What does this fold into?
Amino acid sequence: MLFNSLQYAIFLPLVVLTFWLSPDRFRVPILLAASYLFYMSWRPAYILLIIGLTVGNYLLAQALVKDPERKKLWLGIGVTANLVTLAFFKYAYFLDDMVASWVKPFGVTFPKIPFDIILPLGISFFIFEFIHYLVDIYRGSQPVKSFLGFALFASFFPTQIAGPIKRYQDFVPQFLNKAKFDREHFDDGIALILIGLCKKVLIADNLTFFVQGGFAHPELFTGVDLWIFTWAFAFQIYFDFSGYTDIARGSAALFGYKVPINFNLPYLAKNIAEFWHRWHISLSTWLRDYLYISLGGSRGGTVLTYRNLFLTMALGGLWHGAEMHFLLWGAFHGALLVLHREYQRVFGKVKALSAFLASVPGQAFSMFVTFQFVCIGWALFRAESVSSCFQIMNKMLFLSAVQDGAKVFQLTLASINYPLIYPSVFLILPVLACAHVAMDAINKAHVVARTPKFAKAAFCMVLFFLVMVFSPDKSPRFIYFQF
It folds into this structure.
């Protein structure tokens, strides 16, 4: 069941209505039943997986508290079981192919997996929530007493498929307190849902058709063309994923629940570290708290700190999928974070440079450069194979300019007039970049909080009209559904 589907447009109001018309003691069971129904709408059999993991992690948390002398053992069992489950569904084919390639030179034929493995939706997200829960209990937090409450934490349908990754300390108190209908929160939830749908339907989906054409056939385009395709993908994935998050947050708000913000205008970041404070915030903070710190964090000196940074980002890249180009993307960002720290160490105290970077032109320069490095990473992320990845990098970095001469700098996209998205993209991308800056100014001026209610209602009506009129017959799935 997709957020941008007719099914969800019927499902969500029915659940909201049932929730608020029911006595308080029935509301958690109603949300839990709705969440399981939501998950079963895709592949019913996998409900056994999420229920099984919920029961197992609930019991392991109880064991961590009741048997403190062996809590390290219980934690090891819990984390291993969760990671093995994730690895089986997500990396089995990858590991099978890797082992087969290792033994092939020795004349050994490694058997292929004799059955199909279908990746359960959202497994990467709820596995991370289970691990966070066990680690925090190990560190001294109190476990959730109510099994139904814990089950709802893991399966809450607005965040079930693609996050944001919740922290149970933030989520659980919300259903322990008696829910009271708040008209303002309800209105904000509707607005967030409509904003998210507009991001997805009007922007991300239209850019999808443009981006697919470039990355499916990079051999047909020049380095300049591929830069434009990559800029388009940067905005496509941002509006697609942040649109999903807005719908998730809006849906949760209709029940009086709050889930964490996942994006904060990431393309206004002035360095790569700031980018990761603004992009997929729930994942970046999870990686920091449960992987980077577990590896040693910054406690072991400069070399070990850099190693931990690099490994954290490389593994974060591999979390996105069992493909080498995801690993390359994570490793690239790990290297950028290391270089950023080294830059701060060497040049951070240069007063003239610091003064320039603090100025308006310096900040604009920093944003521009950071965005270009992020886009190089997006090209690695979006490439359809490792060979395609290197072909794209070769052209984008103009490494083939010696062989191809001036051709590598040509703009062949300008000659494509159909479909309409191709000529339109030269206007769309600057508008989206300016909108990023405008939204930052709007947020800083607290414009939304000061806007009269009738103006907000009119704005929502316009958004609803745009979604109804311009929604495509077949909208692509949200990008992060596959992770």
The chain has a mean pLDDT of 88. The radius of gyration is 24 Å. The chain is about 70% helix and 0% strand.
